[in-house]
Amino acid sequence: MPTRRLTMAQAVIAFLQSQYVSRDGLQQPFFAGCWGIFGHGNVAGIGQALAEFAGSFPYFQTRNEQAMVHTAVAYAKQKNRLQTFACASSIGPGATNMVTGAAAATVNRIPVLLLPGDIFAERLQAPVLQQLESEHTQDIGVNDCFRPVSRYWDRIYRPEQLITALPEAMRVLTSPADTGAVTLALPQDVQAMAYDYPAALFEPRVWVVPRNRPDVDMLAQAATWIRSAQRPLIIAGGGVHYSDATAMLRSFVDATGIPVGETQAGKGALPYDHRANLGAIGSSGTEAANLMAREADLVIGVGTRYTDFTTASKTAFQNPAVRFVNINVAEFDAYKQAALPLVGDARATLQELLPRLTGYRVEGVYAAQAAELNRLWDAEVERIYSLEHGPPISQGEVIGVVNSLARPQDVVLCAAGSLPGDLHKLWRTRDPRGYHLEYGYSTMGYEIAGGMGVKLAAPEREVYVMVGDGSYLMMNGEIATMVQERIKVTIVLLDNHGFASIGALSQSVGAGGFGTEYRYRNGERGLAGETLPIDYGANAASLGAHLIRANTRAELVDAIVEAQGIEGRPVCIVVETDRNQRVDSYASWWDVPVAEVSTEPEVQAARRAYEEARRLQRHSL
User: Fold this and answer.
1) CA distances from 298 to 22, 293, 295, 398 (A)
2) Nearest Cα residue to 419 out of 540, 568, 577
3) Listed range (120-134, 257-271, 461-475) with the worst mean pLDDT
4) Would the pTM of this model clear 0.85, i.e. be above it?
5) Taking Cα atoms as reference points, which of 37, 57, 33 lies closest to residue 47?
6) Which run of H or of E encompasses 164?
7) 19-23 and 26-29 strand pairing
8) What is the mean pLDDT of residues 499-507?
9) What residue spans of 264-406 are helical by DSSP H?
10) CB of 74 within 8 A of CB of 499?
11) Helices (H), 257-345
């Protein structure tokens, strides 16, 4: 058998550059390269291997290990999970910095390969710098933290273990149902060990992403249920995008007239102005979608995992006779809500379901109601876009200015704070890939790194990162990476002087916004002094961004236009917003427990309202 003598680390890189993915006959490399920060634990192993293969496998330098995982996740999401990056770190804090990114990837079902350095497998040197010791076992380290947040986890104690570990990693990464973070912990001594690997391990391999079909009997039952429904409703989730099913969904909706509500991951499944598009659904949803959800007698979930935001904490569907049909590639999600499960690819399943509904269409009155609600909601969006509030201007107006000046194919990206809820309701999505929210894990700090990942995945699109000051302060170093790589992303930084979203939530539960504003400490009053004089623009400019300040609506319009003319470097537009001017909740609720006992009247009132709202929760069996 032909062999190839390589170090374990060299074998990893040689394997990764030979992996391809194919769907519908279209083939491409699965890995776009590797992000990494070198330190002890990987500089002599993976670092040396990346240097050796630099001509054929790109390496990207990052500023923070968590950020590089976010970049890889955003890239993979924009690529519909058909391409991703590997991420390599040193041992200790370099490795554990990636745990949050791993959780975000797994929660959102996005593939990313993590290669954290690990302690010596031979243990003679123990305890080494940054090693976690245990008096109960020597077979534990900080990389065990990745176990619960990884879809596949392994520690490579011997170089030959790669022969079985690497194909297993690829199986999970390319699985439509099981994908997420994959972690291979690499002891630093084993990385440098050589082995005579079978040459076949490094031959190009194509992993076919299948379009699985559902059970035919269940498909027939689903068609029967749909035909008998008077008020059916589709919930479009992320699976619509990942299966490239947006065109098929539109054909299905055009044929049947069934209205659609969109999750955060599913937004853009239909154009915002399609007659049947009710917009966002759930706790951050539109009045149109939430009113229709209340009376729905059949809910067809397409590629959704039914988070608490989607179901408004199980209060969205109030019809006592409501039933669920779930189309999902993951069996785990297909069975949720006590549904009739159609376990299969979203596009393929809709294709097979539609012919069984020939001649079926919702009643004209019901379709007209959806169209009218769509029209009324668009008028509400226009009202919020045109508030002429301030200065400081409202967050809704900022969204409106960016949306109005962006091209249909451009991408807006966000992750945390009050912006995701407002964007979910207000952003007029005109292109299936034009809306990018990380809201499964809602990771503060994802935004700037994620924007870079999207731009790498879609260089032909303008990318608008909308980020609050809280998230910006948590992770802004990748501005320097964008400067280094000459990547153009427009960062719209909303300065609302603290954690405005949680401030509003704090007030709603009677806590008065405690600890959510950026203020000086003021004696016994705590953090209640003057607002901190943080100059976010100066910070962004110091990292190499082109800075534009905008204090009014007109200045923001000019800023966006100016940003559109800049190439080859990131742009940061800083705009102060009114933290007290908020977009309403529309016919929805989110379960945030309120203190059951308190001496504060505001808390007592909030508790009474909470207990009243909980009576509407529906418990699926």
Assistant:
1) 35, 9, 9, 37
2) 577
3) 120-134
4) yes
5) 37
6) helix 162-173
7) antiparallel
8) 83
9) 287-295, 331-334, 346-353, 364-385, 395-405
10) no
11) 287-295, 331-334
